[in-house]
Design a protein that fits this description.
With 480 residues, the protein is α+β, with helices and mostly antiparallel strands. The chain contains 16 helices and 20 strands. The strands form six sheets. The chain has a six-stranded antiparallel β-sheet with strand order 8-10-9-11-13-12. A five-stranded antiparallel β-sheet has the order 6-5-4-3-7, with helices on both faces.
Amino acid sequence: MDAGRPGACRTRVTLLRRRRRGRKIHCRSQQALRSVPSNGARSRTALDDHGRGALVTDRELYAYLDGQLAGRFVQSSSGNITFTYDPEYRAAADATPVSLSMPVATAVHKKRAALPWLEGLLPDSDEALRALSRRFQTSARNPFALLEHIGTDAAGAVQLLPPGHSPSDAGLRKAIRPVTELDVARMLDRVVLEYSEGTPDYGPTGRFSLAGAQPKIALHRLASNEWAVPEDATPTTHILKPVVGAFRRLDVVEQLTLRAAENLGNRVARSEIIRIGDWDVLASERYDRREADGTWHRLHQEDLCQALSVSPARKYQHRDGGPGIAAVANLVRSLPLAADRERVGVDFFRAFVFNVVAGCTDAHAKNYSLLLEGRSAHLAPLYDLLTYAGYWDGAARIDSAMSVDGEYAFGRISAGALAKVGTRFGLALSAAEDIVQRNRQDMVEAFESARASLPDLGAEANRVADDVLGGVRKLPLVLP
């Protein structure tokens, strides 16, 4: 584990959608499904998932955005992956792209975009991938094969379903199974083993797919505040992350950092700290789910690695050669609408400044996302925010996940260089300097206010919260 990088020391994580229903869409989806064999088969002799000679088939996964057929992913027996938009979906004036890396204007997209996008839906943990592969008897190195089993409820509006599976059945039935707190605690036990030891989870935890390196589960919260496991295509509404690893009370640190970011003008995911069984848990409300008239809808999103066709294995700029400011700025400039380019540029720069000034070492490209709707794009609420201040001794070097003018070490990043980043996102230098100055001046107050909003969580949690405040006051860019 890298010193000073909580995302590398701990296991981490992190999701948007929109649904359209109607008889016409449902019928068209069913016609499309009936147009291929029920198992999506085109047989040929090749190597199977485990490298054995076998009669295998081209695999197909139909991609639905909030219940509407958008297209299909196909994996050939040689491992090539393509994505093809549905013709009727492409013809709609307000069609939302599955990804900015796969624009609707182009009918067929190749592996260089399709594969990293699929990889971005899966856990970043090798142990978790191995556990999933054992559970479903497929290869941990084949994202397509894994998503055949767990693509029913993924990040954003997308559902990935094999031929013959309808996205609307569960929504019409409201297929959810209430579970007790003991049930949830056991689910958390299993997912921690899955991430730490590669132990498969054979329990009834639902078929969701969550990206990130930190163990977590996704559940549906009922109006009664009870938890439930969605079945078939019913959306999950919350993500539950148990506290694990060597770093004390990450739930407290993340909650404080989220609230501080909100206090400084950023939109953040809604979350709360809860206790389930023996686990301290950060429960986050999914911002890619929305209830309207008693029906839950999926809102579409993708993280910046997906939007840039970058594998999750290359998410860190410093150590992996992943996306940095230049790549993100180019992406923002490529957004179709001028108003979005301006708004997303300002919002991203404000979030980036917060992460740098607050000493958030894990703010890589997968920890920023875009909400997509039609041709429009917005920066998603911030998630997975974590200052390293509470664990810092005040002397060791700590690094930003993205560089500022070629510099990663927080202690060597100047306020002037940070402000110049804003000009790459269309801000006037004076406006960028104002954002930097506000974060430097108000950071301590933002964390103090966040600390005051925490309930009494016990002696250890209180000590961690106090350590965070003390560490924030010592951060290089924070003004006294």
